[in-house]
Amino acid sequence: MTGFGQGTSESPEIRVSVELRGVNNRYTDVRFRIPAELSELESELRRQVLERVKRGRVEVTVGVERQDGKEIRQTLNRPLLEELSRAAEEARQELGLQGPLDLTGILSIPGMFRTESVEVTWTDAQKDLLHQALLQALTAFDTDRTREGEALTRDILTRIDAMLANAKKAEQRAAEVPGILRDKLVQRLENLSDVAELDPARFAQEAAYLADRSDVTEEIVRLEGHLGQARTLLSQPDDQPLSKRLEFLLQEIHRESNTVCSKAADLQLTQHALAVKLDVEKAREQVLNLE
């Protein structure tokens, strides 16, 4: 799920800021952009994030600023300057190029100056500042994602209600199909009665065979059961992630409706099942964005 959150915590010496940006992803992927001196704390921060985030790609950016008024010193990148001077001398000797090095041009070269990193002694008190800032960011992040999740849930529930309505229509039509097939069989046999003698036993056997082959009662019962369970998960959520369970239920709903389409010997019944399949595909797209 997408989301954004910020958090800050400070002491008289430093100010720590944390920013979270989350985008949709089928799996959990947490990436950090933190100062080098904090690299040893990354595993702790990752565990803290994973306690709240179960799905999606999350970028965590950590910044540290001095609060004691000391200026951050810019130092000259001497290795780069020496390499530049050596390259210029080679160009004069080997290529015959003329002209002195321009100080203004040299100083404008990217990387010619280095910014000293903020020096922080990461005692337990300093680590607490970082964890507090991350907690604030996670809280704001959850609020943002919750707002999106509520909108997605409403949309998916609407589609599940539409699928349930079509499943009920399919159930009603399925009850009428055996009689419709029997009437069609009678009509066909009556057309043949002038050229062949009808066997009542054989007629009953064929009618029973057609009714059994096109019977989708079990599939519709399972379909309605899966839809009811999906609706319960969304309307009465627990503390467990929903996405994986909903993905499985939608997969089963698609399978049952597909079987109904394959077995149904009636156009209206097939249309109701196809309508369910269409809403399943739309709901799947939204479920991928849920945690």
Task: Record the SSE blueprint.
Blueprint: E1 3-10, E2 14-23, E3 28-33, H1 42-50, E4 56-66, E5 74-76, H2 78-95, H3 103-107, E6 113-115, H4 124-192, H5 200-213, H6 217-235, H7 243-263, H8 267-287
Parallel strand pairs: 3-4
Antiparallel strand pairs: 1-2, 2-4, 5-6
Helix pairs in contact: 4-5, 4-6, 4-8, 6-7, 7-8
Q: How would you portray this structure in words?
A:
There is one protein chain. With 291 residues, the protein is α+β, with helices and mostly antiparallel strands. The protein folds into three domains: 96 residues, Ribosomal Protein S5, domain 2, CATH 3.30.230; 42 residues, no CATH class; 142 residues, Up-down Bundle (Butyryl-CoA Dehydrogenase, subunit A, domain 3). Helices cover 60% and strands 14% of the residues. It contains eight helices and six strands, in the order βββαββααβααααα. The strands form two sheets. A four-stranded mixed β-sheet has the order 1-2-4-3. A two-stranded antiparallel ribbon has the order 5-6. β1 and β2 form a beta hairpin. The N and C termini lie close together (7 Å). The relative contact order is 0.13. The mean pLDDT is 80.
